[in-house]
Amino acid sequence: MDFERGKLEWLEFDLLQEHPSVLHGVFLRHGGTSEGAYKSLNTSDMIGDNPECVKANRELIREQMGVSHVTFARQKHGTTIVRINEDNYKSSPEADGLFTKEPNLGLAMTHADCQAAVFYDPENEVIGVVHAGWKGNVQNIYAEMVRTLQEEESTKPENLIVCISPSLGPDHAEFKNYKKEFPEDFWSYQVQPNHFNLWDIATKQLTACGVDEKNIEIEEICTYCNPKDYYSFRREKMTGRHATVAALRP
């Protein structure tokens, strides 16, 4: 479901709207201060945009979320998962997954075509975010987040709610070298020559960890196909990055 306030626009997931303790949003590309190729709500400070614009854009999102701080990771297309708490929330950890039990702290992943996922354990009141590009899918960062929450928070996978942002859809997820890049168990997700359904791969990886399919929501909007609202690295190369943000309500 889409929302807007002033110039900002964002998407919220139906499954998470049923849980009032969770604040979250996938912020579209509108309402920010960036210009040119990054217009307008770019949230990445690693791609050449004016740092002051990125700082202002992140502050707009923090204000909209109504939290004291939003922690952005420095993403590496790996599987590192970091706990965020009162000791490290002002840092920018090198990680592709963050989680916390602290209220009032937003967790953010930036993305353009990659999947950004929100994880929520309603039994233990834990929130997490994950960045999964195709390399993250190959390394199965989703399984790593589930394992981390099981070990550190006693999360039961069947209780988890997982929601995945708009991302690259099957019509544009082309991998000409897939036999070198993908494991063989991905090959059956080829929907046309060299094109793959990464949404179905994500669902398969999550259910294999014990997440109930009814607790998985994938927003099947292709970022490549929707230039009005979404950045796409594959479409434009030089472009901005969205922020998917989640927090436990103050």
Characteristics:
14 strands, 7 helices, six-stranded mixed β-sheet, CNF1/YfiH-like putative cysteine hydrolases, about 250 residues, alpha+beta
Helix proportion of residues, in percent? 10-25%
CATH architecture: 4-Layer Sandwich
Strand order of the largest sheet: 1-2-3-14-7-4
State the end-to-end distance.
23 Å
What does this molecule look like?
The chain is α+β, with helices and mostly antiparallel strands and 250 residues long. It is 23% helix and 26% strand. The protein has one domain (2-248): CNF1/YfiH-like putative cysteine hydrolases. It has helices spanning 14-17, 51-65, 134-139, 141-153, 178-181, 198-208, 233-236, and strands at residues 2-5, 8-11, 22-27, 69-72, 81-83, 97-100, 105-111, 115-121, 126-132, 161-164, 190-192, 195-196, 216-218, 242-248. The strands form 3 sheets. A 6-stranded mixed beta sheet has the order 1-2-3-14-7-4, with helices on one face. A 6-stranded mixed beta sheet has the order 5-6-9-8-10-13. It has a two-stranded antiparallel ribbon with strand order 11-12. It is globular and about 45 Å long. The mean pLDDT is 96.
Task: Give a nutshell description of this structure.
With 250 residues, this protein is of the alpha+beta class. 23% of the residues lie in helices and 26% in strands.
